[in-house]
Write a sequence for this structure.
C-alpha cells in the first residue's frame, strides 16, 4: 500500500512516517513549490463552467445565481477544510482514495480511486476536444489534428517532471485569473465612470429590477445547482499534489484557506459585476456570459479574448487530468487494487505506465467524439459530474470518521482541524444530496444517474474477482 496502517491494539491505526521523499514506498519527488500549489488550487476553483456554463445558469436562475454560487462556495470550503484536516494528518498522493480505504474500507478506496480516474479520463476527453474546437476560431484545421497535438504535448509535459506540470498549470491559471480580474475592473469602471456602449444602462439595480432577484422562483435557482457544482469540480486536485509538495504542512493549509476569497472574487464578484452591466434577460444559454458582456460593451476584441481564456481553461483541465490519472492508477496498484505495472516511475518520479494508459484512452475518446458527436457524449459529461462529486462524498465521510477516532485518542489530532466539523461535513453531504436530487429531476442530466449504478456494478464485480484471486492480499482486508 502507499502507506500501510497497522492495528495499534486499541482499535485505532498508526500512520507510516512521512519523509521528504513522500510516504514510505511512494517514490515521488517533492518538487511542487508554494507558488505552484497556490495556482493549482486557484485553477481548480476556476473552470470552464464559469466561462461557458454560467450562461445557461443565468438564463435559468437570473440574478439569484449569485446566491447559488455563494452557498455552493461555502459547501466547497467545508469540503476543502475536511480534506485539509486529513492531509495534515497524513499527506499522501493517493489522497481521498487512501483516506476512503483507511476510514471506510478497502472497497470504498477501490471505488474512489477508479471512479476519480474515470472522472479525469472523461474530463480530459471533453476538454481536449473542446480545446480543438476553440482553435477553429483562428485556424481552419481539422479538430482531430489539434486534439492530437494538444494531447501529445500535455502527455510529454507530464512525463518530463512534476515541476514542469506545476509550472504549466501556474501559467494556465494565471491567464484565467487575469481575465476575470480584468473583467471585474472593466465592469467597475463602467458602473462608476459610465464609459462604453453599456455605460448609459449599467446599474446594480439590474440585480433585482428585471423580474426580481428570483425571477423563476426558488426552483429555478435549485435547478442550476448541478451547473454550479460542476464549475467547482477539480478544486480537490490540490489534495492529489500532497505527496509531491515541497512543504505540505505549510503550503496546503494556506491554499485551502484562500478558497473563500477566491470564490467570493472570481465567482460571486464577477457575476455581480457582469449582471450589473448587462441585464440577466439578455443572456442566452449557448453564449458564454463574458462574450455577451463584451458584446454589450461594444468591445469587439471580447470574443477573441474569451476564446483564448476558455482555450487555456480547457488545456488546464486536460493537463490536470493527465497528472491525476497516472497517480490514481499507481496508488491503486501500490495498494494491490490495480495492475502492478502501473507502479512504474520514470527517473524524474512520474508514473509512466498509468499516464500513458490514460492518455491513450483520451485519444480514443477524442476519436469517438469526432466520429459520433451528439447527445450521447453530453450524457457522458454529465456522468463525470457524478464521478467528481463521489470524491467529495468520500472526503467528507472519511473526515467524520477520522475526527471520531482522533477525538477518542485512537489517532493523532490533525494540525489543521476543520471548523464546525462534523456538523459542517454533514451539511455539505446534505447539500450534495440535494444536488443529486436536482439532477434526477432535470431530464438533461437524469441519464447520468442511470449510468452510475452500472459503473458501480462493474466495479463491484471487478472487486469480487480480484478478491477471490488474491484472498491473502491485505488490500482487501478491513482495517
Amino acid at each position: 500500500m502507499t502507506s500501510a496502517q497497522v492495528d495499534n491494539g486499541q482499535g485505532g491505526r498508526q500512520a507510516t512516517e512521512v519523509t521528504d521523499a513522500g510516504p514510505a514506498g511512494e517514490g515521488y519527488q517533492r518538487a511542487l513549490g508554494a507558488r505552484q500549489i497556490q495556482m493549482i488550487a486557484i485553477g481548480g476553483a476556476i473552470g470552464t463552467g464559469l466561462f461557458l456554463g454560467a450562461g445557461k445558469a443565468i438564463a435559468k436562475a437570473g440574478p439569484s445565481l449569485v446566491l447559488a454560487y455563494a452557498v455552493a462556495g461555502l459547501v466547497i470550503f467545508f469540503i476543502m477544510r475536511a480534506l485539509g484536516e486529513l492531509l495534515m494528518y497524513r499527506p499522501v498522493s493517493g489522497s481521498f482514495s487512501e483516506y476512503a480505504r483507511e476510514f471506510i474500507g478497502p472497497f470504498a478506496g477501490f471505488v474512489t480511486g477508479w471512479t476519480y480516474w474515470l472522472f479525469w479520463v472523461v474530463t480530459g476527453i471533453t476538454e481536449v476536444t473542446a480545446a480543438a474546437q476553440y482553435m477553429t476560431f483562428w485556424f481552419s484545421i481539422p479538430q482531430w489534428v489539434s486534439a492530437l497535438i494538444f494531447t501529445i504535448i500535455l502527455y510529454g509535459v507530464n512525463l518530463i517532471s512534476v515541476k514542469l506540470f506545476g509550472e504549466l498549470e501556474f501559467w494556465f491559471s494565471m491567464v484565467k485569473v487575469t481575465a476575470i480580474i480584468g473583467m471585474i475592473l472593466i465592469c467597475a469602471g463602467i458602473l462608476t465612470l459610465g464609459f462604453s456602449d453599456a455605460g448609459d444602462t449599467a446599474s446594480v439595480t439590474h440585480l433585482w429590477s428585471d423580474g426580481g432577484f428570483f425571477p423563476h422562483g426558488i426552483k429555478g435557482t435549485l435547478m442550476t445547482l448541478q451547473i454550479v457544482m460542476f464549475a467547482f469540480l477539480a478544486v480537490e486536485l490540490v489534495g492529489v499534489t500532497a505527496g509531491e509538495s515541497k512543504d505540505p504542512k505549510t503550503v496546503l493549509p494556506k491554499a485551502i484557506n484562500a478558497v473563500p476569497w477566491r470564490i467570493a472574487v472570481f465567482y460571486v464578484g464577477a457575476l455581480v459585476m457582469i449582471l450589473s452591466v448587462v441585464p440577466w434577460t439578455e443572456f442566452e444559454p449557448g453564449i458564454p456570459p463574458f462574450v455577451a458582456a463584451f458584446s454589450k460593451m461594444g468591445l469587439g476584441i471580447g470574443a477573441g479574448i474569451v476564446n483564448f481564456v476558455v482555450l487555456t481553461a480547457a488545456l488546464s483541465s486536460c493537463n490536470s487530468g493527465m497528472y491525476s490519472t497516472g497517480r490514481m492508477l499507481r496508488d491503486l496498484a501500490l495498494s494491490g487494487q490495480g495492475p502492478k505495472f502501473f507502479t512504474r516511475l520514470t527517473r524524474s518520479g512520474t508514473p509512466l505506465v498509468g499516464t500513458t494508459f490514460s492518455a491513450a484512452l483520451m485519444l480514443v475518446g477524442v476519436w469517438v467524439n469526432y466520429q459520433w458527436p451528439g447527445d450521447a457524449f453530453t450524457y457522458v459529461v454529465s456522468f463525470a459530474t457524478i464521478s467528481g462529486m463521489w470524491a467529495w462524498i468520500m472526503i467528507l465521510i472519511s473526515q467524520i470518521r477520522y475526527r471520531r477516532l482522533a477525538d477518542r485518542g485512537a489517532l493523532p489530532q490533525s494540525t489543521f482541524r476543520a471548523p464546525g466539523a462534523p456538523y459542517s461535513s454533514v451539511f455539505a453531504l446534505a447539500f450534495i444530496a440535494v444536488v443529486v436530487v436536482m439532477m434526477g429531476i432535470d431530464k438533461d442530466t437524469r441519464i447520468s444517474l442511470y449510468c452510475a449504478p452500472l459503473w458501480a456494478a462493474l466495479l463491484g464485480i471487478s472487486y469480487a474477482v480480484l478478491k477471490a484471486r488474491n484472498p491473502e492480499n491485505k488490500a482487501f482486508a478491513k482495517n
Observations:
- Residues 302-334 form the longest helix (33 residues).
- The chain has a mean pLDDT of 82.
